[in-house]
């Protein structure tokens, strides 16, 4: 397309239209964009030659569109110009109105300035008017104002005479006159009313004093109490035009009621001293219910119902008592008696039927829902203090009882006996009575304190039993060393065994139903240990009687050891605790057993039986089952000494006749020991002497080839028999070859280890055997 065609395609601007100037760059840029868009459109439409024929149509249509747009623009511009014209006209009118208002304000300001100057000239006149009004009011009230000093003095006289209602009426008249004077005088206080403040305070103090003595006034002068309460109530409804703080006499009256109660009953704490706290609490036990009864019967009718006098009395007494007890616990260290008294009084007496729980008191006096007198910490502290004090006292009393008992052990007389002939002492009863009484006393306070004291009692009883056992050891040691020869050593040992039995049989008093099972286990163990200790000491004395010199150490490098094995009657572990070594050279009763003299004469064992019977004759003063235990241990001790002597290898039978004599001697000795202890009262079923009959069968056997059967039978009856024991018995026979010995000993290894027969205790394991001969001969021996 040529340039001429392009120029024809450019739209023309009609005359009269405005062209944007350079000061409107946005319009110029918009016009350029429009031109570019029009050129682009025209280029697209008329790009092909056949479309140029329609150019006239396109031009006329565009001219019409342009005319339409110009008409619309003119219409918009015309409308805008009319609005601007209207606004300009309104602005001109507003400007005229503002100018008028400004002129009016200027005139008003001038008028006000003139009125202020006129008012200043009238100020002296206004002051004169106010003074005239005040003078007129004073002239009207002057007769009454002249009577004010006399009325004040009269009111004070009424107060001093405790005519409180009349005094309050007079005071209110004076205050009313003061209010009537105060308003006309514009709040001016006249000097004549300066005494009203102290006068009102004096009346308030009189009301407080009457309320503080409510209990006494209710009995002696109830009218005065009623007057004081009415004054407080009437004054509570007083209104005043003056800005004064309320006197609040009602609250002062209630506080005075409470303070009066505190002052009367809790003004001073009890002084430290024996019985002082108990007397103070007893006085409160009597006074507090009487005070509540007085409040309900006399004070409550004198007061309005909203005072709730009985409830106020009860709560005041309770809180004051609680605070007083807290101060008492902080300032004073209480002993056991005072601690018990306070705990029992606070937990039981105070809320009990004797005091606050009395049926004579109404429901308003109930304080059970209030805080307790003693907190949990207070109760815990008091219980701990009580237990500590009681424990110290119990320890002291038990030590005194033990010292008194130990002092009697050295007497020239035998122990005291009861009507049945048994050794007797009041010590066990005293000990249990002390402990039981303390537990019973603690149960009067609370279960927790009872449990604590019960635990303490068991602990102290265990400690007492240990001290008792130690005292017995010292007693025995001093006697055996010769430092304190006791004429009746064994009888007093037997008496202590009765003490132990008495404690064991009466121990149930320390195990009520609420005690957990097993709580007495430590005490029972201590009692068992004491019984074992006493039995050991008695058996040591028996061995000394049999002239067996004992030493107190186990495992001495030379010498033989005597063992006491576990007892089925309450002496567990005696073998572990009582092994003794003695010198074999000091055994005149068992040194010749077995021997040729022993084969031919029963005199050796008769001496043992005689001394044993003489030693055990005091056992009749011992109660069952301890006496059976002692007899069983004594018989066992004698049999063990017999077996020990038999195993020493002192005798070798020379032939069948001597073996027969030895077997017969064993039978006779077993019968003699059985008869001895049956005569002493020991049951035959628990005797150990039948072991001699079993050994007799081993010696009485004529055919050595059958020894294996006898040894097996011996093992079946006494599983603790060893090869050394059998070898010692075979040596006693004197006719056993090496092969026969080996065959007999091999029977001990055949089959499983048999169980001991029921009720039979071990014997051979407690009997030592002689050391085996050396394996080689010395050059100077018979083998040389």
From TrEMBL:
<comment type="similarity">
    <text>Belongs to the SEC6 family.</text>
</comment>
<feature type="compositionally biased region" description="Basic and acidic residues">
    <location>
        <begin position="1"/>
        <end position="10"/>
    </location>
</feature>
<dbReference type="InterPro" id="IPR042532">
    <property type="entry name" value="EXOC3/Sec6_C"/>
</dbReference>
<dbReference type="Pfam" id="PF06046">
    <property type="entry name" value="Sec6"/>
</dbReference>
<feature type="region of interest" description="Disordered">
    <location>
        <begin position="1"/>
        <end position="26"/>
    </location>
</feature>
<protein>
    <submittedName>
        <fullName>Exocyst complex component 3-like protein isoform X1</fullName>
    </submittedName>
</protein>
<dbReference type="InterPro" id="IPR010326">
    <property type="entry name" value="EXOC3/Sec6"/>
</dbReference>
